[in-house]
Write a structure and sequence with these properties.
39% of the residues lie in helices and 15% in strands. With 183 residues, the protein is of the alpha/beta class. It has a single domain (3-182), classed as Rossmann fold (3-Layer(aba) Sandwich), CATH 3.40.50.360. Helix 4 links the parallel strand 3 (72-77) and strand 4 (109-114). The model has no long low-confidence stretch (mean pLDDT 97). The structure holds ligand FNR. The site of ligand FNR has 16 residues, from helix 1.
Length: 183
């Protein structure tokens, strides 16, 4: 059976650069892996009362079940105000609860940050890593994946520049080696 790799994109925007990068990355996995885009659109903001009262929204329960079966986690995120967009942080929070039932636990992760700006969403990349430490997600350290000036790396047909695709291949190959070592 193929190993499912969850792809989590920190942008809900139709024309999202992060989504385009995530698609490009997902096309580079060898065939033993199945990249699965996990939809964050319907996840209501986390409210602990709903878990405590035994009435979690259906979307939370489905999300938690979807994450549990994954062999690996790929996070592709833009930066909002030098941090992680709320939609992605909320997904981490929903998956981390109820207390003691953290669905992220131990799954090898990859963090890729994307920005039209020159700072490459460094702040979001590292704020995300901070949460992943607490969630016990071992994360690929090298190569670091900061994708800056993205608007210049992608054309109107969504084709990504060849040298950038070559770098993406290095990222995915390194992540797979890391995942196999840590599974
Ligand atoms: C941004 N943007 C942004 N960019 C950046 O490099 N650092 C930042 O701190 C911010 N802050 C920020 C806040 C908010 C609320 C928005 C909406 C945008 C710009 C951002 O990088 C740009 O809109 C990207 O195109 C968003 O990513 P997607 O949707 O293209 O994946």
């Amino acid at each position: 059976m193929k190993k499912k790799i969850g792809i989590f994109v920190g942008s809900l925007r139709k024309g999202s650069y992060s989504k385009k990068v995530a698609m490009a990355l997902s096309s580079l996995f060898p065939e033993e892996y199945e990249p699965v885009f996990i939809d964050l659109n319907d996840l209501a903001m986390y409210n602990q009362d709903l878990d405590d009262e035994g009435t979690p929204p259906v979307a939370w329960t489905k999300f938690r079940e979807d994450v549990k079966v994954l062999s690996g986690l790929v996070f592709v995120t833009p930066e909002y105000n030098r941090s992680v967009p709320a939609v992605l942080k909320n997904a981490l929070d929903v998956g981390s609860r109820p207390y003691g039932q953290n669905v992220w636990d131990g799954k090898p992760g990859l963090v890729v940050s994307v920005s039209p700006g020159a700072l490459s969403a460094f702040g979001a990349n590292h704020h995300l890593r901070q949460s992943l430490v607490f969630l016990n997600v071992p994360t690929l350290q090298q190569p670091e994946a900061y994708i800056g000036n993205i608007a210049n790396l992608i054309n109107e047909e969504d084709t990504i520049a060849e040298n950038t695709m070559n770098f993406f291949k290095v990222i995915i190959d390194s992540y797979i080696a890391f995942l196999e070592k840590n599974s």
